[in-house]
Amino acid sequence: MDITVHHQGTPHQLQLSDSATLQDLSTEIEQIFDIPTDNQKLLISPKPGMQKAPFPPTPLSSLLALDSPKFKITLLGTPAKAIADLHQQSESTRKRLEARASALAAARRAKHKSSSSSTSTRTSGIHTLSSSSSNYTFHRLLPLSYLPRPERSLEFLQRLRDDPGIRAAMAKHKFSVPLLTEMNPAEHTTSESRTLGLNRNKGEVIELRLRTDAYDGYRDYRTIRKTLCHELAHCVFGPHDRDFWDLTAQIEREVERADWKMGGQRLTEQDFYDPGDWERVQSGEEVIDEQGWTGGEFVLGGLGVDEAGDDAGRGGGSLTRREVLARAAEERMRKENSKKTTEDA
To answer: Which PANTHER family has this protein been placed in (predicted)?
Structure first.
C-alpha cells in the first residue's frame, strides 16, 4: 500500500502492508520523521478528518478513501529534537531576562535608596514598576510546537508578557500566572462562533487565540490584549457577573493608561491585522470565553483537551454558549436603552 503523507508542505511516500492499521501508520511516521506518536496529528480528507493519539488499530483499507480525488493526509507535528531545542531556547531566554531584570533592579536600588520601600514611582508620566513586581507576571510561555513557526508565537507571547500596560495591571492586582500559552484555533471553532481565550483554575493557565484560523498570520494585537484583560479578571471571578465585568473594565483602563508605548511596534511584517476583530466579539460572532474553567488537569502536549478528551472550554457548571450570547445581547440592549434615555433627557 503506497501512501503519500504531506508534512510542512512537502509530500513523502510511505509503503505499508495491505493489512496495515492507523497505529502502524503512526509508528512508521515516528520512525521516518522522528515525531513522537503523542505529538502527531493526522488531518485526513475527505474523511474521517482530524485524528489524534492514541490512534486506534483501524485497518487503513477501510478507513481511507484512497480512490477519492480529494484524498490527502497532512501530518501536523514537530520532531522531538526541535521541541527540545525550543524548550531550551525558552529557558535560556527566561534566564537572560531574569538576569537583566535583576541587574536593573540592583541599579535602581543603588540610585534611589531613599525610595527603596516604594512599590512604584511616576516620572515624566511614565509608570515604572519596582523589582518586587517581578513575581507578578507569566512565569512560563509555551507556544504550540506542532503548529507552523512556533518561534513566532513565542515572540508574540513575550510581547504580551512584557507589555507595559499588562505588567502594571498584574503588579497592581498581584496576578501571578504559571503558564501563558496559545490556543489552537481548530479546537475552539464551531459553526456558531470562535472562542478567543480560556482561564483554567483561576490563573493556573491562560490560553489565547493568537493565530488566524488558517494559521497563516496573527490576529490584531490590541484585540488579543483585550482578551487577556478578560482572562486576568477570571483569576478573581469565575462567572460573568457584574463584579467580573467591573473588574474587566478596570483592568482594561489600567492597561491602556500604563501603556506608555501607545501600542508599541509590530511583531513582524507577517502580523495579521483586522480592525473588525473586536466588533465581531461585540456582535457575538466571536466569544471571549465561557467563564473561568475550573477542574481537570492541564497536560503539556495536549493543549485544549483534558484527560477525558473533552473540550477544556466546557468546564462543569459553566454557562452554555447560547446563554453567554443571550447575556451579551441583553447587556447591549441595556446600554442602548440607557444611552437613548440620556439623549431624550
So the answer is: DNA-DEPENDENT METALLOPROTEASE WSS1 HOMOLOG 2, UBIQUITIN AND WLM DOMAIN-CONTAINING METALLOPROTEASE SPCC1442.07C
